[in-house]
Amino acid sequence: MTAAAPSPLHQKLKHLLHPWEHLGDRPTLKRTMLGHAEGIYVYDREGKRLIDGPAGMWCVQVGHGRRELAEAMAEQAMKLAYQSPWGLGNEPAVQLGEKLASIAPGDLNTVVYATGGSTAVDTALRFVAFYNNVLGRREKKHIISREAAYHGSTYLSASCTGKDREQNNFDFETRTIHRISAPNIYRRPAGLSEAEFCRKLVAELEAKILEIGPERVAAFIAEPIQASGGVVVPPEGYLKACWEVCKRHDVLFIADEVVTAFGRLGHWFASESVFGVTPDIIACAKGLTSGYLPLGATLISDRLVQAISGEKGQGVTFFHGFTYFGHPVASAVALKNIEIFERERLLEHVQELAPYFQGRLRELRDIPIVGDVRGLGLMACVECVLDKDSKEPLKLDKAIGRRIDEHAERLGLIVRPLYSMCVLSPPLIITKSQVDELVEILRKSILLAMDDVRREGLWQG
Ligand code: PLP
Q1: Facing residues of 144 across strands?
Q2: What percent of the chain lies above the pLDDT cut of 70?
Q3: Residues at CB less than 6 angstroms from ligand 1
Q4: pLDDT in tens, 190-231
Q5: What domains are there in the chain, each with its CATH number?
Q6: What is the Å distance from ligand 1's center to 447 Cα?
Q7: Which of 253, 270, 360, 361 has the most neighbouring CB atoms within 10 Å?
Q8: Model pTM score
């Protein structure tokens, strides 16, 4: 990220340690400070307008500057800003629970509130361990995750993360957490068709379960589309086949829908509507409040809750929960957010617009350094390569994604750079002409970044 000159505000940045901050860059890192935002646009403090390409962090679904959400927040804060979830309850949290159960797939009717995505995933993982302990299956603790997955930043959710886990200087849990291949079609072994690749991946999951022992494997955790792993859309039928394998071996299927829920793929939840999977547990957050306030939720199947309730639950307490469980203000915002979705038919809007969005972005494939453009719904990734045949990633001293982001920002667009990739997930309210504006700026930015690396002798195209 760039900024014109170090302002007094920038000088005070030294007091913050941001997520994923590179410590070598810290003294010099300039980041754009935003002043305000409206619709799909954010404005820096000098008033420069930028398209919010990643919708904040995959979350500002209904767009910025929604007065209704601010009013819902203020109204609830004045009525009841906080209440202890230990022994007490509040109306918005209860109403939201009922609403979530009504839009969730299958019998996922029990809601555990969390403070965001990581804590929702953490809750899912802890619940699974708790569930098996209550059932007397103390060995059934192992979790299978995938390379390139991102599940959060708590100890447990980060332990399930596949991305760079080994290089990040944290000591994660490795004894009970296993990883299998990411379902990345673009990077599948040469010579394999998509269908063969799919079979290979599913066989790998089954082999991993058998290697550990089904009686020791508690759950498989998966993002329906790996988001920050580079918008990895799995092969046709992959998730459903993984679900079948899990059912066969009594392994629970946890869907991490922190990114894919709340309209990103044109549905409340993607697991069942898009991929035909009814998970045992879904973790969600982000779009639940459109990012206006932090809130996460873990939705659990009745079947699981009932199995450890009543007779089985005698003397058993669910020793898990957060001070901000069912926060009344966050719940009121989530309810209003869902109301906006319904009134403005945002799910239908995404379903209608997605083919256009994906189609326009795929036009970028004619650029020499663009190896792949992939995505579904309103989430997409542009991956740059040195050479389209070898698919060698364009990883340079300063990753190409960052170079593209810098040009894009100058031209009026924020993209999310991820090494050799740029990820896009705009607010769901984006229109066709705004998609055109986004794609035009992105094309210019990629071409400019390509000229830079050619000029610097880093790429010979
Ligand atoms: N799961 C997925 C798929 C995510 O993309 C993220 C965050 O980007 C998380 C979990 C963690 O969410 P949070 O940052 O709200 O804790």
Answers
A1: 178, 220
A2: 96
A3: 57, 116-118, 121, 150-153, 223, 227-228, 256, 258-259, 285
A4: 999 999 999 999 999 999 999 999 999 999 999 999 999 999
A5: 32-65+346-455 (3.90.1150.10), 68-344 (3.40.640.10)
A6: 31
A7: 270
A8: 0.97
